From TrEMBL:
This is YtxH domain-containing protein. Keywords: Membrane, Transmembrane, Transmembrane helix. Pfam families: YtxH. The chain crosses the membrane at residues 24-43. InterPro entries: Desiccation-related_membrane, YtxH.
């Protein structure tokens, strides 16, 4: 399942927007919880009632925090899997190109031996070097995208 650069960029942008939405939701939840806690301290209540309310709110916050942590972990795993899948598909495509180029080079050499055409100007070493550079660039891009996603999830 090979993805084009545009599809990868679109997926990345959608993921960023999704993360931004999650950041907003997290901020709203935390703000709501702080507002509730402030209301508890300002409202005139007996000490026992206030302590019970604080305990209940602490339990609710703890549950929501656990759920949020779990959601973020799952999102990070999904992102990692997406990047791994992308790198695997790109690597497979590059390996296919290398094999194809080697086959073409072999055919050219046979034709040259038979006197049918002139030798190609590009050597196999040049082709391999170019492909290695392309693979390294794609791997670096994938690593950078993964690092950015991980950094966003940690903040």
């Amino acid at each position: 399942m090979a993805m084009t650069q545009k599809e990868v960029q679109k997926t990345y942008e959608e993921d960023r927007n999704s993360i931004n939405s999650k950041d907003f939701i997290i901020g709203a939840l935390i703000g709501g919880m702080l507002g509730a806690a402030t209301a508890l301290f300002v409202a005139p209540k007996a000490g026992r009632d206030l302590r019970n309310d604080i305990t209940e709110q602490a339990r609710v916050i703890s549950e929501k925090t656990g759920k949020l942590r779990q959601d973020l972990t799952e999102t990070a795993r999904e992102k990692k899997n997406n990047v791994t899948e992308l790198v695997t598909s790109k690597s497979s495509a590059i390996v296919g190109k290398v094999r194809s180029l080697r086959a073409e080079k072999a055919v050219e050499e046979l034709e040259v031996e038979a006197g049918e055409s002139e030798p190609a100007a590009t050597s196999e070493a040049d082709i391999a070097s170019t492909l290695e550079e392309e693979v390294q660039i794609k791997l670096d891009e994938a690593q950078q995208a993964f690092d950015e996603t991980e950094k966003e999830l940690q903040s």
